[in-house]
């Protein structure tokens, strides 16, 4: 093989390699953006469900404190 054909094949190989590297980088950026969007949605859902759990727990504790029927039962037993 002559030097020109080696250089030519090397240049062609470099072009093909750069093309594949660029495609891989572009795909990586796309995947990264998709993952960021999914993470953002997961955080929002987590915050929503966390707030829901805390509000249900707080509501339950508030209502249990208001119940007086157990006090009446205890008072009746003391008589």
UniProtKB/TrEMBL annotation:
- Ranges where the Cytochrome c oxidase assembly factor 3 mitochondrial coiled-coil domain occurs: 33-75
Q: Which residues cross the membrane?
A: 44-62
Describe its membrane topology.
Single-pass membrane protein
Q: Which UniProt keywords apply?
A: Membrane, Mitochondrion, Mitochondrion inner membrane, Transmembrane, Transmembrane helix
The GO biological-process annotations, alphabetized, read as:
mitochondrial respiratory chain complex IV assembly
InterPro entries of this UniProt entry? Coa3, Coa3_CC
One Gene Ontology cellular component term attached to this UniProt record is:
mitochondrial inner membrane
Q: What is its main location?
A: mitochondrion
- Where, per UniProt, does this protein localize? Mitochondrion membrane
Protein family: Belongs to the COA3 family.
Q: Which PANTHER family did the record assign?
A: CYTOCHROME C OXIDASE ASSEMBLY FACTOR 3 HOMOLOG, MITOCHONDRIAL (PTHR15642:SF3), CYTOCHROME C OXIDASE ASSEMBLY FACTOR 3, MITOCHONDRIAL (PTHR15642)
What biological function has been recorded for the protein in this entry?
A: Required for assembly of cytochrome c oxidase (complex IV).
User: Quaternary state and partners of this protein?
Assistant: Component of 250-400 kDa complexes called cytochrome oxidase assembly intermediates or COA complexes.
The name this protein goes by in its record: Cytochrome c oxidase assembly factor 3
Species name for this entry?
Answer: Sarcoptes scabiei
């Amino acid at each position: 093989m002559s030097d020109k054909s080696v250089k030519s094949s090397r240049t062609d190989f470099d072009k093909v390699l750069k093309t594949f590297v660029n495609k891989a980088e572009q795909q990586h950026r796309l995947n990264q953006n998709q993952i960021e969007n999914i993470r953002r949605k997961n955080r929002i859902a987590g915050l929503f469900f966390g707030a829901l759990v805390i509000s249900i727990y707080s509501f339950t504790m508030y209502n249990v404190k208001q119940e007086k029927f157990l006090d009446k039962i205890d008072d009746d037993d003391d008589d």
